[in-house]
């Protein structure tokens, strides 16, 4: 008698065939519902798979990597909270890489796909260089990009519509009577920085407001750098009455600086962030923010990658997640309510 559970007992517990159990445990393409049943039965029975032997036989590791710019950014954590359960249900472990948006580190991650340490990769780069595109074209494992890549890039791509998101924010500020609306942006050589900068100019033009270089401040996508950028902006343009911040971390830095300067939010200066992270609702005052669907993008990316791992060879797909404006106290005042509303 065997010392522990076998594929036969797993098949009986899962209510599937022995052949189906064998396919799942050997990493072969199988329906996701079957994978879920088999993995649940294996866990219940205490079945321990020989990962090394399985990998040698199937050339699969049952590991997937997620490479992000900043593991401390709540937007990426929101993605992670959706990516991990989708992959875990399919029997995959998740390996995390925090690249600090360093291009060389991202290229190294792409290059290492040739070593087959993971079966696939989800990556969210801030910059997409020629080196990225060359490595993506030659990738020896499925890759899904969360972010924006040029048209024709041969990978699945899940995007945010930050241009529409900026327009929602600027329109909201304008509707409140704000006319000196500043942009506090991240680096313009990044996809988010470039798209949000362009969208800000377009939004002003459509509202009939003049573009003023004094109302644009470049920083980085971190709280401390955002605060420093806002301090510089206030010195140059003290009459600013609204801040459109390129992400929530910048906006939180803005709240810090405005509070220290004795500027009331939103009475003196209204503030809008982007990403609608958990920090937005928890800040004081609570932060109006444009949700770019971080959780939805993470889930979509994981599902696209699983399709590829299960043998889908269709043309690369592009999914765009629509933005939502969440209005809270930093623009509407505390009487509006802590949770605010969505548009």
Automatic annotation (TrEMBL):
Q: Which SUPFAM superfamilies match?
A: lambda repressor-like DNA-binding domains, Periplasmic binding protein-like I
One MF term in GO for this entry?
DNA binding
- Keyword annotations: DNA-binding, Transcription, Transcription regulation
- HTH lacI-type domain ranges (all copies): 5-58
PROSITE patterns to which the protein is assigned, alphabetical = HTH_LACI_2 (PS50932)
Q: What is this protein called?
A: LacI family DNA-binding transcriptional regulator
């Amino acid at each position: 008698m065997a010392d522990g559970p076998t594929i036969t007992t797993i098949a009986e517990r899962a209510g599937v065939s022995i052949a189906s159990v064998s396919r799942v445990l050997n990493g072969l393409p199988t329906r996701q519902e079957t994978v879920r049943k088999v993995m649940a039965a294996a866990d219940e029975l205490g079945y321990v798979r020989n990962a090394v032997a399985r990998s040698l036989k199937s050339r699969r590791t049952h590991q997937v990597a997620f490479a992000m710019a900043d593991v401390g950014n709540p937007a990426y954590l929101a993605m992670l909270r959706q990516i991990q359960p989708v992959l875990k249900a399919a029997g995959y472990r998740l390996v995390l890489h925090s690249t600090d948006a360093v291009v060389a580190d991202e290229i190294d991650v792409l290059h290492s796909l040739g070593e087959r340490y993971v079966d696939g990769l989800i990556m969210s780069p801030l910059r997409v260089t020629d080196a990225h595109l060359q490595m993506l074209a030659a990738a020896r494992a499925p890759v899904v990009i969360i972010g924006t890549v040029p048209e024709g890039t041969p990978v699945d791509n899940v995007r945010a519509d930050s241009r529409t998101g900026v327009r929602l924010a600027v329109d909201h500020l304008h509707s409140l009577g704000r006319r000196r609306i500043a942009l506090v942006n991240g680096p313009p050589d990044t996809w988010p920085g470039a798209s949000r900068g362009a969208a800000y100019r377009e939004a002003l033009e459509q509202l009939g407001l003049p573009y003023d270089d004094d109302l644009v401040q470049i920083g980085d996508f971190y709280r401390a750098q955002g605060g420093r950028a806002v301090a510089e902006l206030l010195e140059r343009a003290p009459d600013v009455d609204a801040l459109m911040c390129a992400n929530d971390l910048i906006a939180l830095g803005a709240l810090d600086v405005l509070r220290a300067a004795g500027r009331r939010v939103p009475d003196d200066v209204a503030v809008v962030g982007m990403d609608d992270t958990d920090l937005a609702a928890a800040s004081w005052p609570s932060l109006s923010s444009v949700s770019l669907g971080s959780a939805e993008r993470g889930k979509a990316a994981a599902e696209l990658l699983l399709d590829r791992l299960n043998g889908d060879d269709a043309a690369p797909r592009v999914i765009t997640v629509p933005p939502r404006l969440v209005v809270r106290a930093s623009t509407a005042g505390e009487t509006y309510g802590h949770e605010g509303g969505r548009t």
